[in-house]
Amino acid sequence: MRGLIQRVSSASVVINGQCHGRIEQGILLLLGIEAADGLEQSEKLINKVLNYRIFADVDGRMNRSLKDIGGGLLVVSQFTLVADTKKGLRPGFSRAAAPDAAERCYEDFIRRLKGQYSAVASGVFGADMQVSLCNDGPVTFLLEF
Fold this sequence. Notes:
- The structure is a single chain.
- This protein is α/β, with parallel strands linked by helices and 145 residues long.
- The chain contains three helices and eight strands, in the order βββαββαβαββ.
- α1 packs across α3 (99-116).
- It starts with a strand and ends with a strand.
């Protein structure tokens, strides 16, 4: 499981011209699900995203987490994060979970996340989404499990 987290001032996801999810200050999480992913990887990523200290404290140091600041979390499925780009000029997706399994994992991830944190918005698995963000920093991290 891979998650690209971006600290944002705001972020939104639009599907078919309609805003499906929007947050103000917080984290945009692009989530890639691999074939071997399950509950263990999901729980580790949830814990890391909610508690990762990437927000400034009073001294301007990254010492505060999403939970500390009460920020929003926008989760968008992004299977291209699991692409193998080491060889050639075309990405390979053999490590990505099959669409039906990935969708179940994504929906379970969102459900578990909402059980631990209330300020969660999300995209729709497999939808053609337009994601907008105002990157805060910019501060971006790739988390892998």
